[in-house]
Each structure stands twice: as structure tokens, then as C-alpha cells.
Amino acid sequence: AALSLKLRADLREGNLPGIVLTAHGEGAADAESAGSDSLVVRAFREGLRVAGGPPGGNGAWRIEVSSMIPAARGLGSSAAAIVAGLLLGASAGRLPTTADQLLALAARLEGHPDNVAAALYGGFTLAVMEPRDVTVRRFRVPEAWIPVLFIAQAESHTADMRAALPGRVPLPDATNQAARAALLATAVLTSDASLLRAAMDDRLHQPYRLPLLPGAAQLIQIAYDIGAAGACLSGAGPSVLAICDSPLTAHSVEKAWNGAGHQGMATRLRFDTAGARLNAAEPRE
User: Fold this and answer.
1) From residue 245, how far is each of 148, 151, 196, 267 by CA, in Å?
2) Is CATH 3.30.70.890 the classification given to domain 146-268?
3) Which of 12, 37, 33, 36 is nearest to 23 (CA)?
4) What is the location of CATH 3.30.70.890 in the chain?
5) pLDDT digits (tens, 9 = 90+) for 100-117
6) Which CATH class is domain 7-138?
7) FRET label pair with 93: which of 17, 136, 236, 269, CA 20 to 30 Å apart?
8) CB-neighbour burial class of residue 196 (10 A; exposed 0-12, middle 13-18, buried 19+)
9) Cβ–Cβ < 8 Å for 271, 241
10) Is the pLDDT of residue 78 over 50?
11) Residue 263: exposed, middle, or buried by beta-carbon count in 10 A (0-12, 13-18, 19+)?
């Protein structure tokens, strides 16, 4: 699902050959220190390539990024950076590109389509990576659902969280998880928030990651005690997401989380329904 945490990227003509990246906001230092290896720059080159632009990103380009998505918190900052870079690169090429083409590129850069699909299309998305492309469907966001996010101060890295997972899982857990995935899709399609608690009871990831993320399990329990419809780790953590079906419950979860004594900040957000947007720059006088 796409949340209302935004990343903005602007492409301008540079003064010198090459790609110059400047970043502001969350994760700015990491983005600028990565330079030509940053996800935005790598994705920009890929977008430029598929759209028939100069090979290797040749030219004089200046990319300015402003992000409100904290990095290494399980919030999809890398997916947003990839989608932004691809859109900018494709816009500077000569050939038209489709959203499905960009999604396939984004999934390869990210390693999976889950977060890039939501960043590109908005709303709730279901994406499956095929050998040659990505099958994706976008679903309408139930109007009454309100996301509340606890943004942890601590960082966790995807590689470490993946290393915590076992190489094999018990067959009952796998079959149970498949049923819960179907239940989650049903909850979204029918706007039935009463299904979320069972649907979001993950058996493949959370049992192995929660012991490594102090306070996360308690935050999930607090959300349920107050009346949240569903709660889980956001991505690989350490941030936590709750979905509430009333403004009063959402306010109560936000207040309780902020008063729980954990390092971080709780905030009510919206589900983003627009997805990535490309706007032409205003002409300068």
C-alpha cells in the first residue's frame, strides 16, 4: 500500500557534463554520499536508456531530491527513489514508455515488485514478478481506513532482516500464510476491516524479525488493545503500521504510541491513491 509520505525529484539542465545529485530531507546525506551509485542516479540512467536517451546518461544533468521518507525504517524509501529516477530518465528520452515497462525495470533494481508497484501506481497493489515482466493489479483504497505509522528512530537494514529469516519454513505456516494473503485481498476488495487482524497475522516474517526490533511487538499489541483493525511491521521494520477504521481509534493509537516511551514518532497519514506523478517544469523567466 502507498502512504502519504512523499519524495520529490526535479530534473534540470546541468552546468557540467555528468549527473549531479543534491538531496534534502530524510536520507539526504546517504543519497549524496553515494553519488553515481545512488538509487536515484542508477534508476535515472535506466529510464533514460529504455526511452532512447543518451547512452550511459551522457549529458549535463542536475537532479534535486527532497524526501520526507526516512531511510532504513521499513517505509519504502528505496522504492520511491527508484521510481522517481526512472520517471525522470524516461521523461528525458526520445521514446515513449509505459508504466508497465517502468515497473519491470523498477522491480529488477529493487529485487522485488512489492514496494515499487505501490510507489508507481498508488493505492493497494498486488504484484507478482514473472520471468519477463511483472503482473500487477491496483485496488481501490477503502474510504474509512486510516493508516497510523510509528516511525522508529532506530534503523534496520533489509539485508540484516532478510538474514534473520530461515531458509525453510514449516508447511503449515506456508499454507496458512497463503490463506491469510487471500484474506487480505478480500478485506481490501470488500472494505471489510474486521478481516484485517487475521489477515495481517504474518507467520513467515514477523516471528523471526520481531525479537530483533525492541518495542515493535509491544506497539503492535498496544494498537490492538485500543481497537486497531490491523497492525504489523512496516516492511522489514523497525517501523510499525496500524490500520484503523475510525478517526477516534486512529487518534487513540497515535496518542498511545507517542506515550509508550519508545524512541520514535507516531503519526496519522493517508493512503496515497494517485501514485507517482510527472509534472512539467514551469518555464523560467
Assistant:
1) 11, 20, 10, 15
2) yes
3) 33
4) 146-268
5) 999 999 999 999 999 999
6) alpha beta
7) 136
8) buried
9) no
10) yes
11) exposed
